[in-house]
Design goal:
Blueprint: H1 2-6, H2 12-32, H3 35-38, H4 43-52, H5 58-67, H6 69-79, H7 85-103, H8 107-134, H9 141-155, H10 157-200
Helix pairs in contact: 2-8, 2-10, 5-6, 6-7, 6-10, 7-10, 8-9, 8-10
């Protein structure tokens, strides 16, 4: 199997590198987009209790911010809670953009890999086919069919590998984008609740 893959020529190497990058990005995003690392349960409730007991100190805010993205958002809102509502909302929106950027990190690279991999595979196949047909004149008629079939099958290896990389990369790209959207909705909902609580005090 490995020999068959290597028969795709030097075009196979950037494809293999792309596959390693894809797997690394997918594993990294699966780990970092866990709910407990982004929007832990009952975090808002804990923050409100600390605020009511006047125990939401700078140390506590830094601890919550380091714990999760939602914690960072809630700590930011509390830090600027002395400002008027419109300015406070603006600060929250700025923080939301920062969090979204962090959550989406490397996801676009999956889209790039999904776009480039099949094209690179196709290019490898075209180059391989050109070599096959360029060598037809030097082949004897008895061996032409077998060697032509063998050469074409090897040339098609890069297209197959490119598609095998593109399909999971594109699937992961869309799944991760949907997950980020859902997590951002949760962050914004919890943020609005804290904003309402602080402005009604």
């Amino acid at each position: 199997m490995f020999d068959l893959i290597l028969s795709g020529g030097w075009f196979i190497w950037p494809l293999l590198i792309s596959s390693v990058l894809m797997i690394s990005i997918i594993l990294e995003r699966i780990w970092l987009l866990q709910i407990k690392l982004v929007v832990p349960e009952n975090l808002l409730k804990q923050v409100v209790i600390l605020i009511e007991n006047k125990k939401f100190t700078i140390q506590q805010q830094e601890s919550f911010a380091a714990m999760s993205h939602l914690g960072a958002m809630l700590a930011t809102i509390f830090r600027y809670s002395h400002l008027p509502r419109d300015i406070l909302e603006s600060k929250a929106e700025d923080k939301a953009e920062e969090i979204k950027f962090d959550l989406e990190r490397n996801i676009n690279n999956l889209g790039i890999i999904a776009s480039i991999a099949p094209l690179l595979g196709l290019l490898g196949t075209v180059v391989g086919m050109i070599k096959v047909f360029a060598n037809l004149d030097s082949l004897s008629q008895s061996n032409t069919a077998n060697l032509l079939a063998s050469g074409i099958s090897e040339a098609l290896v890069t297209t197959a590998v490119g598609l095998l990389i593109a399909v999971p990369a594109l699937t992961a790209f869309h799944l991760f984008n949907r997950r980020v959207e859902r997590l951002m909705v949760t962050i914004q909902t919890e943020s609005s609740k804290l904003l309402d609580y602080l402005t009604k005090k």
